[in-house]
Amino acid sequence: SVVTDVHAACQDGTVTQELLQAGFHRELLVKVELGGGGEDAGGCTVAARIRLPPGVYVDPYELASLQRHNLTKAVLVPNAADVEAPEYSATELLVLLYMEPDPRCSRCFRASLPMHGRYHRPAEDSEEASVVLKSPEVLLCCC
Known about the structure:
By secondary structure, this protein is mainly β. The chain contains 1 helix and 10 strands. The protein has one domain. The strands form 2 sheets. Strands 1, 2, 3, 5, 8 and 9 form a 6-stranded antiparallel β-sheet that branches. A 4-stranded antiparallel β-sheet has the order 6-7-4-10, covered by helices on one side. The longest helix has 9 residues. The radius of gyration is 16 Å and the shape is elongated. The N terminus is likely disordered. It is a single-pass membrane protein.
């Protein structure tokens, strides 16, 4: 779990990322808690802009299926990803993940994103490869 601070023009808050499950098929859970006291943030729209390094990807076909069933509001840029490419020939992907209000907290939002690991180059000394996820950018509109 990774926690980072959010500093926007009108809000302070906290972002938490958790990588769930194990192996090549994971789920990224992103949570945002807005600062600003006890006011309700029900009128706010929150999105996380996530840059995925070449070692992981979002399957565009899986994402389209989840969108059709209203299970996610995520946009993949570019909207086509080579799901067969190994890490060393893949490129970074950008995901815009729209977040839902958390019913347990009036200033909290959350969303999850299925993601998959790519094959890396063979290594002699280690059986593991590291993929570093950067902190997402949080986009906030309280209109």
